[in-house]
Amino acid sequence: MEIHVVYYLIVSTIMLFAGIYGFFTRKNLLAVLISVELILNATNINFAVFNRYLFPDVFEGHFFALFGIGIAAAETAVAIAIIINIYRNIRNIQTDNIDEMKG
Amino acid sequence: MDYSYTILILLLPMLSFIVLGLAGMRMQHKVAGAIGTAVLGIVAVLSYATAYFYFGNGRSADGTYEKLMPYNFEWLPFTSNLHIDLGILLDPISVMMLIVISTVSLMVHIYSFGYMKGEKGFQRYYAFLSLFTFSMLGLVVATNIFQMYIFWELVGVSSYLLIGFYYTKPEAVAASKKAFIVTRFADLGFLIGILIYGYYAGTFTFEPETQMLIAAGGMMPWALGLMFVGGAGKSAMFPLHIWLPDAMEGPTPVSALIHAATMVVAGVYLVARMFPIFIAYAPEVLHWIAYLGVLTAFYAAAVACVQTDIKRVLAFSTISQIAFMVVALGVCIGADTHEGLGYMAGMFHLFTHAMFKALLFLGAGAIIHAVHSNEMSAMGGLRKYMPITHITFLIACLAIAGIPPFSGFFSKDEILAACFQFSPVVGWMMSIIAGMTAFYMFRLYYGIFWGKENKELHAHHTPHEAPLSMSFPLMFLAAVTCVSGFIPFGHFVSSNGQAYDIHLNAQVAITSVCIAIVAIVLATFMYMKEQQPVADKLAATFKTLHRAAYRRFYMDEIWMFVTKKIIFRCISTPLAWFDRHAVDQFFNFTAWSANASADEVRGMQSGKIQSYCIWFLIGALAFTVMLLLV
Amino acid sequence: MDITLQQLVFYVVAILMSVFSVMTVTSGSILRSATYLLFVLFGTAAIYFILGYTFLGAVQLMVYAGGIVVLYVFSILLTNSDKSINQKICKSKLFAVLATVLIGAALVLFLIWTNGFALNAIPECSEIGLKEIGRDLIGMDKYQYVLPFEIVSVLLLACMIGGLLIARKR
After folding, report:
1. Could A99 and B610 be called an inter-chain contact, meaning their C-beta atoms sit closer than 8 Å?
2. Looking at the predicted structure, is the pLDDT value of residue C83 above 70?
3. pLDDT of residue B1
4. How far, in Å, CA of C72 to CA of C38, rounded?
5. Does the residue A102 lie in any domain?
6. Using a CB-CB distance cutoff of 8 angstroms, which residues of chain A are in contact with residue B607?
7. Chain B residue with minimum CA distance to C106
8. Neighbours of B367 (CB within 10 A)
């Protein structure tokens, strides 16, 4: 099984920056959320890869990725609930229209 | 002997000030006045008790009265030996001053009952009087020069408040400002002097270590000289005297208390306080002070001869008499009782002068109260209407003129003797000035009580004798003036503390009495009649001189020229320009730049989460790059 | 140069994941975008399988592919998002983001490359069994995770309640 660890990391890096790019360029909140999923998955891959390659005897990265998946699921559920609520209120989920945080 | 009760002498007037100042406006006039007067009565009794026990307690082994400090606590420690203390010092001159201040202040308090009756701000007036009394007592019992300075400034403040008592009168406001600014300006010198003194002597107390003073060498005369500048400001020495005549805008009892008897002698007291250091390390400064005193005495006496406002005459006479005291201190040539005769004489004159000058001012107040004017032209022939005032005023005039057996004779005689001992020239000049004193005082006396009566004014409003509350202080002070000359003053106060028997120098005494009598006769001849041909003719002949003297030899105009034309135009205007264009602009620029950058930054607060995040990302990347490069 | 099957699978998966993740964020239709995301998630699961973490891969498939993506699709349809996806951001901002992302990616790749990982093979070890995972999740010893497990369970409960509260009709 001759796969260099760097290849995994390259894949996760591409995912991460694709997610970041999407996060900044998308205007639709759901699309932004999809980009966030990419970022989360990239980190999860890194946890698993480092665990497997560097410390094969323990499973910390493995469990961390597991918990990460759980938390990501929870986050997505809440975020989608919020987005749907926003849609109900303003019939729109464009980020431009959501700037109530401004002082 | 336990002197711990002396703290009450300070605390009671302060308490009275606080009570009257805070709650006075809710009190009846009489209640407020009674509180102030009662407190002062207690203070006076305590002062007399202190003096009685202090002098009655006898001398210590070396023949002096020992210096006592019932209280002295360290207030601001700077170094182990340089610290500012607050306390109470009892020595012959401070005890003597306690008596003077509490007596005159008590008399003024009683007198003001009648004089200020029904005035608006009666309670405020008594509050300020208490404040002044507190400050002045604190000044004289100061244990160190810095405490003295603190109370010195407090005295200045209360003087300012009292001169400006009629704050709706523009002249009073201007006079109070003038007094405050001139004395503050002089106090700058005092402060610098104190700092030099503290630096070189290593202490603020009055008795530094000898080797420190020797090591200070040439700096000690500078320190003492600068201190005297402050003293000259408070004591109205030429050319800083200009505030005192204007200070007469205040109520007359205030003039009696502050601007005749107590505060203005603070400068003399300061020199007396520092006298041991003066005489040992800066005798030449002392002599310069004496020459300045002679000039002031002559100048003030000359101006007093032609003034028509009776309070102005008394003000210039005060300047002249204080100059006598300064001269007396300045002509000392050594510390022992004989060479330091002037010290004793100056303090003696301070004592007697306080009494008879307060009497003169209170008498003048009674007269002004009766005729509602300060001008001599509104008076004349008042002896019929106001017998008590007339007699007491005459006693005071005789005292200041130096006629035996009134107190002024004894003290002035000692001063003249000291002057002759120093130098015959100074002695003769002072004798002539003493003659001028007699002349202008009797000119004043005749102008008020004899001379041409202003009939139409008096018909319109008949002058009447003052009420008892006003005439009692007059009689009391007149009695003091009659007897205080016989006090063996040298036994209490002298330059080195040893007892000194006052013995009249027959030659000096006879000369001065003769000069005084000649002057009085001259004044009688010129001013007693209703018509005054000689005086008018003299004024017409020496028109320029008369006019110059009447305008006080243009000293005010010279000061105005110096301040307005020279200081304001050449120094203040460029500084103001610098302030407005450089300093202000700098701060305007910082404000503007903060504003502008805030405007720029505000755009980043868009409320859009994505733009926040991209800044975060850029920051994180920048940090990564930084970590890589480091 | 002989390539094993496993390597072949990995390279194919890696390339697909890279392509699909880029397409996820560039696609003009949000439904497609969600579909590409699904592919990327499958790829992630495949990587877990390659690494030997079969349980993790299974969870990834169930939670993401089975749950979350379905949720996305529903909410996309609920909010009419497929019509409004095409709003573009302005050019200058796009360039700024692109530059930042490229520089960032270059930086990270540079770091990975120069770090000098000398690990070119997956170390041999026994696969972690389900029983062991279960025990580790609720054990209290070192390297056991009952506390995070409980916290996550509470978190999920809170999310459930919160989601209901936020999304319900008033």
Report:
1. no
2. no
3. 66
4. 10
5. no
6. 99-103
7. B621
8. 27
φ/ψ of C48, rounded to 5, equals -60, -40
Rounded distance, CA B105 to CA B108, Å?
A: 5
In a domain, A10, yes or no: yes
H or E element that contains B494: none
Q: Does A73 touch chain C (CB under 8 A)?
A: yes
Residue range B105-124, pLDDT digits in tens: 999 999 888 888 888 888 88
Of C96, C97, C103, which is closest to B621 when you measure between CB atoms? Answer: C103
User: Is A27 in Cβ contact with C89 (below 8 Å)?
Assistant: yes
Give the whole-angstrom CA distance, residue B485 versus residue B412: 10
Domain that holds residue C84: 5-118+125-167
Which residues in chain B have their CB less than 8 angstroms from residue A98's CB? 608
> Which residue of C17, C41, C101 is in closest CB contact with A20?
C101
Q: How many structural domains comprise chain C?
A: 1
Where residue B527 falls (left for φ over 0; alpha for ψ -120 to 50; beta otherwise) is alpha
Residues 6+ positions from C22 with CB-CB distance below 8 Å: A14, A18
The Cα–Cα gap between C60 and A48 comes to: 12
Structural domain for A90, as ranges: 5-97
* Residue spans of chain B under pLDDT 50: none
> Looking at CA atoms only, how far is residue C104 from chain B in angstroms?
7
Domain assignment present for residue A62? The answer is yes
Bond before B239 cis per omega within 30 degrees? yes
Of residues A24, A32, A99, nearest to B606 (C-beta): A99
Per-residue pLDDT tens over the stretch B334-349: 777 777 788 888 888 9
Judged by CB atoms closer than 8 Å, whether chains meet at C107 and B621 is answered as yes
Of C150, C105, C151, C128, nearest in space to C59 by CA: C128
Question: Residue C136 belongs to a domain with what CATH number?
Answer: 1.20.120.1200
Among residues B462, B290, B453, the alpha carbon closest in space to that of B371 is found at B462
Interface contact flag, C107 B617, Cβ < 8 Å = no
Q: Is the peptide bond before B283 cis (omega within 30 degrees of 0)?
A: no
Q: Which of residues 88-117 of C touch B (CB under 8 A)?
A: 96-97, 100, 103-104, 107, 111
Chains that contact A by 3+ CB pairs under 8 Å? Answer: B, C
- 3-state DSSP helix/strand/coil % of chain C, to nearest 5: 75, 0, 25
Residue A53 lies in a domain: yes
Q: Which two tokens stand for residue A37?
A: 């999923």
Total tally of structural domains belonging to chain A = 1
Q: Which two tokens stand for residue B309?
A: 């406002």
Asked if B608 and A96 come within 8 Å (Cβ–Cβ), the reply is yes
pLDDT score recorded for residue C84: 60
**Interface predicted TM-score (ipTM):** 0.89
3-state secondary structure of C40: helix
**Which of B604, B610, B617, B621 should be substituted to probe chain A, the one whose Cβ sees the most A Cβ atoms within 10 Å?**
B610
- Cα separation, B553 vs B547, in Å, equals 8
Cα–Cα distance between B195 and B146 in angstroms, integer? 9
**Cβ contact, residue pair A24, B609, below 8 Å:** no
CATH of the domain at A55: 1.10.287.3510
Cβ–Cβ of A33/C52 closer than 8 Å? no
Cβ of C7 and A35 within 8 Å? Answer: no
Q: Which one, of B368, B369, B439, B430, lies nearest residue B401 by Cα?
A: B439
